[in-house]
Specification:
With 420 residues, the protein is of the alpha/beta class. It folds into three domains: 83 residues, no CATH class; 116 residues, no CATH class; 188 residues, Ribosomal Protein S5, domain 2 (2-Layer Sandwich). The chain contains 14 helices and 16 strands. A seven-stranded mixed beta sheet has the order 10-11-9-8-12-15-16. A hairpin with a 5-residue loop joins β13 and β14.
């Protein structure tokens, strides 16, 4: 204030705060000034409003591993106390780069070829800051409804930066696969910020199911953050069309267990199961599902003719159970959503068997299946309506942890399973 000298964000392209946990603020105004600058690129000192272009990078470390950090708090916990639980400050962070995924520098990462002198490379990047690649997204990528205005701005800026690194010349056409690669990374690093806001407890940030569609006729794809996923937990994100979580009730010496059915369709006809060997019980269930799809195609998929599509099916087992018994309804939903290009709701498990006549067979261990669904992290369970009386025996604790819905027939199950 005394000398009128402009600060660091006015002098440099990037200002990096290393070991951010050690920073402290004498006054709360310091954080508020930062928030204003991160939003608008302006800040006030005295009577003067100053514009600047310097980006801010905050670097810090956990005292524990990532998994433990998520149990005891959130991933922005190492920030100064004035910032760590401030959701408005978090909302202005465009990207959270997971340092635990960044390889440590070693001799294997050093090139044998020519390099660019760092000050020359820095000057190239300085010049590229005056350009934008956001126009590459127009009419090629469409963002899902979960992204707010700030989310969209953050993703756009990260995509633009990644594309400038790959294609420094604006004249080079950018292939679809590279554009999609940049969009997926940008959504992941922004969603990581949103997940921490949700953990702090702000209801306005609870919808974190980020998605995008490549082209107007493309399939909606969801982007998750890897550290939130668990090998034996289904998570809350919708899967791609044709993928369904299900639980087999067991039988014939096989226990109940969690499965994922994955269906793809293409030109041709018929159905092919990729598992080798094909479990006999699953072969029967997928056969029932296929025949019901052909017989009731108008009710299930409208004007799409399943006989003109070839389906490839893979069954993935996530427990000791491997038979895939009595998975007919989930198989039918997977076949239908693959044709319709619609995702099943996130966190949903579908159970039940359908016979050749289209009737839903009874399930005799509905309580056990519900307990497995809760253990696997499901938020919703879709069951035949005949299971309703059995669930009287479900404990109060279990009943509060999962949303149980019922269906009467295959069409009812499909409509209730599909994402909005």
């Amino acid at each position: 204030m005394g000398t009128g000298q402009r600060g660091l964000v006015c002098q440099y392209d990037v200002v990096c705060f290393d070991e951010v946990a050690g920073i402290s603020f004498d006054q709360k105004d310091g954080v508020n000034i930062m928030k204003g600058y991160m939003e608008s690129g302006e800040f006030s000192r005295g009577k003067e409003s100053i514009r600047a272009d310097g980006s801010i990078v905050l670097v810090g470390n956990f005292e524990v591993d990532v998994e433990h950090q998520q149990r005891i708090g959130h991933l922005l916990g190492p920030m100064p106390r004035e910032m760590r639980d401030d959701t408005a400050f978090m909302d202005r962070i465009h990207a959270y780069l997971p340092g635990w995924d960044v390889p440590k520098i070693n001799k294997d990462l050093v090139t044998n070829h020519f390099g660019l002198v760092s000050d020359f490379l820095s000057e190239c990047w300085t010049q590229l800051r005056n350009q934008s690649r956001v126009s590459e997204l127009q009419n090629r990528v469409f963002f899902g409804g979960a992204l707010s205005g700030r989310d969209t701005n953050a993703v756009n800026k990260t995509v633009s930066g990644l594309l400038k690194l790959l294609y420094p010349s604006a004249d080079i056409p950018i292939p679809g696969e590279d554009l999609e690669w940049a969009v997926r990374i940008a959504m992941e690093v922004r969603r990581r910020v949103k997940e921490q806001q949700k953990r702090v407890g702000a209801a306005e940030f609870r919808n974190t199911h980020f998605s995008y569609t490549m082209g107007a006729e493309g399939v909606e794809k969801f982007v998750s953050t890897p550290e939130l996923q668990s090998d034996n937990s289904i998570g809350g994100d919708p899967l791609e069309p044709g993928q369904v979580w299900t639980i087999s009730p067991g039988g014939g010496g096989d226990n109940s267990g969690l499965y994922r059915i994955e269906v793809n369709d293409g030109p041709g006809s018929g159905l092919k199961v990729l598992n080798k060997p094909i479990p006999p019980a699953f072969r029967e269930s997928i056969g029932f599902a296929e025949q019901n799809l052909y017989a009731r195609s108008i009710q299930l998929v409208g004007d799409k003719d399943p006989r003109h599509h070839e389906f490839t099916v893979q069954l993935r087992a996530f427990d000791a159970a491997k038979s895939g018994a009595k998975l007919g309804v989930a198989s039918l939903v997977a076949l239908c959503t693959s044709l319709l290009k619609r995702s099943v709701r996130g966190g949903l498990i579908i159970v039940g068997e359908i016979n050749l006549g289209g009737s839903i067979e009874p399930i005799h261990n509905a309580v056990t299946i519900t307990e497995i669904a809760v253990e696997k992290g499901a938020t919703a369970l879709l069951m035949p309506v005949a299971c309703r009386r059995q669930l009287v025996d479900l404990s109060d604790d279990m009943a509060t942890k999962i949303d149980i819905q019922f269906y009467s027939d295959a069409r009812d199950a499909l409509l209730k399973a599909m994402a909005e």
